Amino acid sequence: MSEITESVTLTIDGREVRAVTGDTVLDAARRAGIPIPTLCAHEDLSPFGACRLCIVEIDNVRGYPTSCTTPATAGMVVRTQSKELEELRNSTLELMLSGHPNSCLICDDREDCEKYRPQPAKAGQSTKCGACSNRSGCTLREMSLATPASTLNLPTLYSPHKLERDDPFILRDHNLCVLCGRCWRVCEQLHGTPAISIVNRGREARIGTAFDRSWVDSGCTFCGACIDICPTGTITDRFSRWYPAQHRELRTSCQLCPQACTLDLIVSQGQVVASHMTGFKRPARLCALGRFAYPQIMSSAVRLLQPMIREDGDLTPVSWEETISAVAAALPNYRDGSFALIAAEPQTRESRRMYEHLAVEIMHGQLFSQPAGSGPDDLPSAVRDDITAGRIRAVWTAGDYLTQELLERIEYLVVADFLPSLAARRAAAVLPVAVLAEDEGTLQTASSQIKTLATPLAARGKARSEWTLVREIVQSMGIAGFELPSVTDVVRADDREYTVAPPNGDPRDRVADLPARFRGHVLADIVPGLQALGLRATEASAPVEQLVGFTVVARDEVVPNFHRLVIEAPAIARHAQPGQFAVVMVGEKSERAPFTLVDWDKEKGTITLVIEEVGRSSQEIAKLKAGQRIAHVSGPLGLPLPLDIPADNIASVPATPRTIVLGGGCYGVGSIYPIARAFKQAGAQVITVIEGCSEHMLYMEEELRSVSDRFYLATKDGSEGRKGGVQDVFLDLYREGLKIERFVAIGCSFMMRMVAARTAGLGIPLQVALNPIMVDGTGMCGACRVTVGSETKFACVDGPFFDGYAVDWDQLFARRNAYMRTEIEAIPQTAGNGLKVLQPAT
Questions:
Q1: Per the CB 3.0–4.6 Å rule, which of 110, 118, 135, 658 could disulfide with 741?
Q2: Average per-residue pLDDT in the chain?
């Protein structure tokens, strides 16, 4: 807030409050620490009055004005709390929630769910708070939980077509949007003309672009401000959305171009997972590289992590001491001026100073600084000619700046870099270096401003800062004067400025001005989403298409996030039994993912799976189309559920059929279908119960009714059937006095845990189908081990069915959470999902 020079005095909730002339009532209340709920208002944006949650009562003012748009005037008497205001706000909130998935807000198991699942579950669509990446930061959720109401009178409207995920960096789920207008207002404030606005009317209103163009074609510069200011998670960062919410912020300067913009890094468990603007004013805006590429560059899975030297023709990982000694022993052979050092701009001033000392003063050679965005083809003709003519025999390159032709003429090559390259494969020594937020020191911008980098993060692997590498190599060469204990000592005695090539344009205003390379590496190779912005990736030969695989007969989304897949797999269909599963690999390099068999047809030779879209493998499957082929399907695997009824001798079934209760939730709704069918065919009385967070998440009702004697529905929000879950319906049946022989529950781990917790002690056997992490599906890897009673079991060969009351649920949850970061990192970062599938044979 601005300094108070001229002020007015008003009364808010009986308190005398002083406000700056020009403040709104909301500003005055905030200044006094008086809370007023709001969604659309933001201290960095002009008043808008869209959400109407900030309404107040003002003496001598008709109606209920919005406090965010009402100027504070002297003598005004304001009330922020009353019965009428509470009722109006709750009605407005309920109206917003009718278009926003809300089942978790009124679920009776919410507290237990959040206790056992502190991080929201990954999902393609946010159909509930428990599957929303913005759960911990959702303003709408906070307001809803603060209200006393436990039911919603308006039905929830959900539209699967409102999900947009073809953008290179931004995911948009308009089912979460409450039209607060923050996103397009901040876009207008930062860029003058907003790339987005509210389009359509009524129920179809949403945030979009003129003429429904893609955001890439709308003039969007991908600064990410719309993500950072969204209060509901409608707009999210494709890369960082599923990382744990616990994090810290680190303010530093970007090194991807000479402007060196200031940015706030979001660091989770030592890893940069996002970068944000430092505010919502025009000078703080970022370009697409600073906002979206920066974290992905640092997190690249192919980082150089350990030093290597060439021994007997091969690069061999060795210790830093051996690497430094080897380089220090070789460099003196080239102190006759036949040495060149190629450095990257922008770089820290400290690394630049040390490189100058090494190249010019010690080696009597040359230093070439490559401007941002340059690559091998941009190397100065002087150095190319000197290498070709043999006048330069040794080269130290701090990036990917050498063509294959030049590499073949270099006698001794040192590569100090953070990513593999052709040069690194041919080098005599490879030195992994710290990069971006791992680096330390100061930056000089193109405008000659000196900026200090933040305290560095721990470098990946064994990487080190470049200035320290030069210091240690020079010391190992026996040259005095380089005893520099800290980075500040490097430029203390030599604080010269040096020239930094300015950018071709401002990439914060035009994506066309984004540098195409960093340290010579093609950025679109590291960050695939940049290809959608016009940055080209390295051309690679297309993979040979295989004419083998398993044909996809059909694929449809039965409800949001759940996909039914019919695959031609005759061998599996011939031998499948209820409760077994198959392991699917979409591509040759895909993950092996297990999925329960939902149905099979021996005559047609097909199997059916219902797959919940949560991670990489399921996202690949979600993009499949009929006629395409997938690489591998193995099965049937696992032990079938024992029916304990002689299916081949129906006459031996007792006159009074035994009663079996089957409960299914999420993917388990489909999984219980073949089990119900088998029990029904064997003469048992089958009672089937399925649950969903809301009515629009229920599926296969008709199929399950056809194989059930009694069929029940349960929803967490009470929109269909009984309010609650499978366990609640089961308890109702138990209280009826029904003699139940067995209870089988299949669903997510939390659902099965709740079933076990709520039905323990009733004396009815409970079987659950466990779904731990699984790799090979044959008992060899041990990843799916679980503890049942006092024994260690393997879900893939001993299960998947186990005694639900004997399962160590705490251990199961802990093991699943242990793989969370790996699962997040495996999710593709391209528009759609970047999947290349085998096409139909011609």
A1: 658
A2: 88
